[in-house]
């Protein structure tokens, strides 16, 4: 196994970052752009895209789209994530980390933090998504809506890790969850990447 990577049972590519890179979050694309001048047009496109990311990726696939679950379970969010969600420090939450793959290639890494208080009633189903994309659940529901998108600049260890990310809170009444989406170089390098 190459250092810093884990093997993937499902992917033939063997280029899958095991851990998400540390990321600095900015309240807008404009704020992030002040730090990293000249964010390229393809990154800007994905960072600002409205609606379901799953759906947008599915539209770019020739052979198919699938979700690979890297880990799912009750874990402790970071302090910063707990603050962003307004949950007590140290309280465990349901954490889901996945790879969104187009044509068998990982295109996006996603990390979702779901507080325990969100896992009630019908939303208990959020623990049982498995390979069903979270976007299919959130965007088919009338109850859930998305807050503003933050832009993340990633501090990567190597060129195979995602350079940029975006993050937003989803709300349903008092319930919240936090979705982070990290764009991998294979997606950003596609010639049709920012064509709708
Ligand atoms: C929020 C969405 O759901 C996507 C699917 C995810 C999952 O299955 O865990 C995670 C993040 C998203 O990119 C979306 O499609 O926009």
Would you mind describing this structure in some detail?
This is Probable chorismate pyruvate-lyase. It holds the Pfam family Chor_lyase. By secondary structure, this protein is an alpha+beta fold. It has helices at 29-35, 41-48, 53-58, 79-85, 134-139, 185-188, and strands at 23-26, 65-75, 93-102, 105-115, 145-146, 150-154, 164-172, 175-183. It has one domain (23-188): 3-Layer(aba) Sandwich (Chorismate lyase). Residues 52-54, 67, 96, 98, 100, 108, 110, 112, 133-135, 138, 179, 181 line the site of the ligand C=C(O[C@@H]1C=C(C(=O)O)C=C[C@H]1O)C(=O)O. The site of the ligand C=C(O[C@@H]1C=C(C(=O)O)C=C[C@H]1O)C(=O)O has 16 residues, from helix 3, strand 3, strand 4, helix 5 and strand 8.
Summarize this structure briefly.
The protein has 6 helices and 8 strands. The protein is an alpha+beta fold and 196 residues long.
Strand percentage, roughly?
Answer: 25-35%
Query: Number of domains in the coordinates?
Result: 1
Overall number of strands: 8
Head-to-tail CA distance between termini: 38 Å
**Main pleated sheet:** 8 strands, antiparallel
> If you consult CATH, what is the topology?
Chorismate lyase
Compounds present? ligand ISJ
Annotation field: number of helices: 6
Mean pLDDT: 89
Radius of gyration, whole Å: 16 Å
How much helicity do the residues have? 10-25%
Note the overall shape. globular
């Amino acid at each position: 196994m190459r250092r810093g990577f884990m093997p993937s049972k499902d992917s033939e590519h063997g280029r899958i970052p095991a851990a998400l890179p540390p990321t600095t979050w900015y309240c807008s694309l404009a704020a992030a752009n002040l730090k990293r001048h000249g964010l390229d047009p393809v990154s800007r496109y994905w960072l600002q895209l409205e609606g379901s990311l799953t759906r947008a990726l599915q539209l770019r696939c020739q052979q198919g789209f699938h979700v690979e679950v890297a880990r799912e379970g009750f874990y402790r969010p970071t302090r910063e994530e707990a603050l962003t969600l307004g949950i007590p420090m140290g309280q465990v939450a349901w954490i889901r980390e996945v790879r969104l793959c187009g044509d068998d290639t990982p295109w996006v890494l996603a990390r979702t933090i779901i507080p325990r208080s969100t896992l009630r009633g019908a939303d208990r189903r959020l623990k049982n998504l498995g390979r069903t994309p979270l976007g299919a659940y959130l965007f088919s529901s009338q109850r859930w809506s998305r807050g503003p998108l933050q832009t993340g600049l990633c501090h990567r260890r190597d060129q195979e890790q995602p350079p940029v990310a975006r993050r937003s809170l989803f709300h349903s009444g008092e319930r919240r969850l936090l979705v982070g989406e990290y764009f991998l170089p294979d997606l950003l390098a596609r010639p049709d990447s920012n064509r709708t």
